[in-house]
Structure formats: C-alpha cells, structure tokens
Amino acid sequence: MTGKQPFEAVVADHAATVLRVCRAVLGPADADDAWSETFLAALRAYPDLPGDANVEAWLVTIAHRKAIDVTRAAARRAVPVADVPEKPAAGRADGRDLDLADALAALPRRQREAVAYHYLAGLPYASVAAVTGGTADAARRAAADGIANLRKTYPGPEPVGSARPEGETHARQR
To answer: Do domains 7-76 and 100-153 have the same CATH topology?
Structure first.
C-alpha cells in the first residue's frame, strides 16, 4: 500500500458526509441503500485509488452515481396504492407543510445536486462540476438558484418565542 489509510478509517472519516449527500439527493427512504452501495463500490475500488486522491470527492462521485442508479430503478417501478384518490391532496397555500427534505426533493435535479454536494458535502464548485458534469461556474449558478428556490419554498423554523401576524414574513438570519 502507498501510504493510504485503512479503508475502515475512510468510512469513519467520510460516512456522515456521504449519508448527508445521499439523503439530500434521494430523500431518507433510499439514502441508506445508496450509502451502503457507495461504500461497497468504494471498497472494491480503493486498492487502485492513487495515494494523493481527494477521497471525499471520490466518495461523493460514487454516491452521485449510486443515486442515479437508485433514481433510475425507482422510475421503473410501479408505486402501489390502496385507493386512488379522486383528486390530488392539496397542501397549505403558504407551503408550511414542507420540511427541508421535501423542499430539496422539489428542486430540479441539477440544483438539488449542486446544493447537496456544495453545502452539505462541502465540496468546492470545481469538484461539484467534476461530479455532476459541466463547469464550476455552472455548478455555482445551480447552487445559487437552488438556494434561492429553497428560500422561496422552505419556510424554515420559526424563531423561538416569536409570534408574527398572519402573512408577515421574517427575515432569515445568515
């Protein structure tokens, strides 16, 4: 071996980041499977990984590919339901019944991936572009658009002890 850390240490160091990315891209239902598949694939390929490689970016790339696989497989499966509703259920008009995972899932794929890889995995835009394809500027734009869309659709938590009149919005803390 060429000075690489044991694979167990790689898992310990990067497991949380990979799981956050999988959850953001796929949602909580499929994230655990994608996480497992990511590390199984990484275990097989780890001996051939150069010693100077960015392991975190490498793992996020594998997680991205596994997420694509899960998404494609889910698109091919039928979703069973007990009874078909007469009309779609309506959410609240102000969108406050969404949680963050739902808001992320509602983003277009490129925006969702750019937000997940940059803000949740902490990858620089050049690495995000390498994972998703395109340029660093395109990844930066997709992430910015994704965050802008989240600010519109995700109400965020109410400040503790605040009571605001109906219809009044609060300024987000940065």
So the answer is: no
Cα distance between residue 166 and residue 163, in whole Å: 9
Q: What is the 3-state secondary structure (H, E, C) of 26-79?
A: HCHHHHHHHHHHHHHHHHHHHHHCCCCCCHHHHHHHHHHHHHHHHHHHHHHCCC
Tell me the CA distances in angstroms from 138 to 56, 92, 105, 144, one per residue in order.
21, 33, 20, 10
pLDDT digits (tens, 9 = 90+) for 74-106: 777 777 777 776 765 555 444 445 577 788 888
Q: Which fold has domain 100-153?
A: Arc Repressor Mutant, subunit A (1.10.10)
120: tokens are 């949740």
Token digits of residue 68:
């694509």
Give the span between the Cα atoms of 132 and 60, in whole angstroms. Answer: 10
**What is the C-alpha separation between 114 and 19, in angstroms, rounded?**
16
Report the C-alpha gap between 145 and 139 in whole angstroms: 10
First to last CA, the chain: 45
Q: Return the pLDDT at 85.
A: 67
Pairwise CA distance, residues 146 & 119, whole Å:
11
Contact 29, 70 (CB under 8 A): no
State the CATH class of domain 7-76.
mainly alpha
